[in-house]
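Please complete every field before forwarding. Incomplete forms are returned to the sender.

SECTION A: IDENTIFIERS
Entry label: holo-302
Bound molecule: flavin-adenine dinucleotide
Molecule representation: SMILES string

SECTION B: INPUTS
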Amino acid sequence: MMYDIVIIGAGPAGLTAALYAGRAEKRVLVIEKENFGGQITFSPKIENYPTQMEISGSAFAEQLLSQVQAQNVDVELDTVTGISRDENGFTVQGDYAAYQGKTVILATGAKHRVLGLPDEERLVGAGVCYCAVCDGAFFRGQKVAVIGGGNTALQDAILLSELCEQVTIVQNLPVLTGERILQARIEKIANIKVITEAKVTALCGESALEHIEIQYDNGLQEQLAVNGVFVAIGQQPDNDAFASYAALDDYGYLIADERCLTDTPGLFVAGDCRTKAIRQIVTATADGATAALAACRFLDGQ
Ligand SMILES: Cc1cc2nc3c(=O)[nH]c(=O)nc-3n(C[C@H](O)[C@H](O)[C@H](O)COP(=O)(O)OP(=O)(O)OC[C@H]3O[C@@H](n4cnc5c(N)ncnc54)[C@H](O)[C@@H]3O)c2cc1C
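SECTION C: PREDICTED COMPLEX
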């Protein structure tokens, strides 16, 4: 089947693009590789999306997905490995099938950044975690560290403080960089300790994590006994598969401006996968709408 619009990625950007394109009565396919809703499903609490005083990431994603499913939109669970283009449009290659679209919207988001330490991969699932919402409950009553000092790290620390005996935030900068409101909350929680100007240099343990080694900027070193470490040091994109049709910046983000256009006619980008200043749901959904309407204009002009 030839779709009007194939959307790659079902996070807030991709799903919002599907909502707009579905309402414009285009034939739409959304392809998602693992998690309908995207990164936001890992957030315990969203408090900054207009109209929502407080909502969990998974509830937000469920509502958005139901809104999309009320439109006549197809969805597939598949990992897209590349795209190609000919005079009819695009072929989107997945692990299981190839899909045809007159236009494509890339909404592949970003994924968590790793520390890059020698034993990190070996200890994943044995103390090394990247998602407090998913794995926090495994560390009930235990000691954990959160690596990072931005919004995600602070939200993770608050969530973990309700489950764990002790939470230590390890931040490489002199100050925490997350929102003031989160920092103020952290200051009032007795079982959260904050260490600044310090880097984790080793993750140690045989069959499971036993302690981490910390190097302070002033040269001091410390061993911190923890059962779990939650890495929250930001995101990185994974766009190499699309680089022959859309240029990437030095960090691997797809280059596109507020109009969500690429240099390839019929190819659009939306959300965290593109160059932008602020990566949040509100900017991702705005991009989804912009990209979908740009794709509709492109199709209607054909
Ligand atoms: C823990 C956490 C808390 C957050 N809290 C907030 C908050 O409170 N408020 C806020 O505004 N923002 C928050 N954010 C940020 C917000 O989640 C992101 O800005 C938003 O999800 C970006 O949406 P997106 O659709 O661009 O990308 P994503 O949400 O990353 O979705 C991209 C989707 O594409 C899929 N995909 C990627 N590659 C492929 C492929 N090759 N084939 C098929 N599918 C693919 C991925 O599996 C994913 O589902 C938080 C993020 C995290 C991780």
